[in-house]
């Protein structure tokens, strides 16, 4: 699938592991209609490389130095609204999935996917489609059957899991202590728990937060 002007599909690969970048480059450059035009080892470099090369597709990992994948996508989309970022990661928590698509990702893929599926996804995204890995699709379908936490509630839940007190959370998010308490009460109700410890345990079990 060449572009309308006859060019190959230009791809930016952003990942902090050089071996993985090399592997992705080999897979993509093997295709007659696409090639890797730029690489980046961290989120800030990914934004700079995008500005410089204006690729048709950006493959972006979530966990990178200086700026993570979500932040890199937000920055890229802020300057280039028509950008087509694809998240390629090992993380499949509901929070990551939601934040990824909110930031502007056009697809959410896992690194254990087949090479053929990756290049097929690149072509599909260029056609205007959104794509998710099968495991992600199953997780999203399961989520629809449960009460949904808001982005703010997910953020606060993650901070609770990180051991932050209400005052710290309020300061970090620029909201009042009362608002934090109201969100926490809502989270407790949706998760059907009665304490912060139970909330964190339930969140980890459901993949809502990731403990690092």
Which of globular, elongated, flat, extended, rod-shaped describes the shape?
A: elongated
- Helix-strand sequence: EHEHEHEHEHEHHHHH
**Span between termini:** 40 Å
Report strand %: 5-15%
Could you give a short account of the major beta sheet? 6 strands, parallel
The CATH architecture of the largest domain can be named as 3-Layer(aba) Sandwich
Q: Percent helix among the residues?
A: 40-55%
CATH level 4 superfamily of the largest domain: Response regulator
> Count the helices. How many?
10
Please tell me the total number of domains. 2
Give a description of the structure.
With about 210 residues, this protein is of the alpha/beta class. The chain has two domains: about 10-145, Response regulator (Rossmann fold, 3-Layer(aba) Sandwich); about 150-205, Arc Repressor Mutant, subunit A (Orthogonal Bundle). Helices cover about 55% and strands about 15% of the residues. Strands 2-1-3-4-5-6 form a six-stranded parallel β-sheet, with helices on both faces. Helix 3 packs parallel to helix 4 (about 95-105). The longest helix has 15 residues, at about 175-190. The chain is elongated. It starts with 8 loop residues before the first strand and ends in a 6-residue tail after the last helix.
């Amino acid at each position: 699938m060449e572009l309308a002007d006859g060019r190959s599909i230009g791809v930016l690969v952003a990942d902090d592991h050089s071996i993985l970048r090399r592997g992705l480059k080999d897979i993509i450059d093997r295709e007659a209609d696409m090639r890797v035009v730029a690489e980046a080892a961290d989120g800030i470099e990914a934004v700079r490389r995008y500005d410089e090369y204006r690729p048709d597709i950006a493959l972006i990992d979530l966990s990178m130095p200086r700026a993570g994948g979500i932040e890199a996508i937000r920055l890229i989309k802020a300057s280039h609204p028509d950008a087509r970022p694809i998240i390629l990661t090992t993380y499949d928590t509901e929070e990551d999935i939601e934040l990824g698509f909110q930031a502007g990702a056009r697809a959410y893929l896992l690194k254990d996917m087949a090479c053929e599926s990756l290049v097929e996804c690149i072509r599909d995204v260029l056609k205007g489609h959104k794509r998710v890995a099968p495991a992600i699709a199953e997780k999203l379908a399961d989520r629809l059957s449960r009460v949904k936490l808001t982005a703010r509630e997910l953020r606060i839940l993650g901070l609770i899991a990180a051991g932050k007190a209400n005052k710290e959370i309020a300061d970090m998010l620029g909201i009042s202590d009362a608002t934090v308490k109201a969100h926490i009460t809502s989270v407790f109700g949706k998760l059907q728990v009665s304490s912060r410890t139970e909330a964190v345990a339930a969140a980890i079990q459901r993949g809502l937060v990731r403990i690092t």
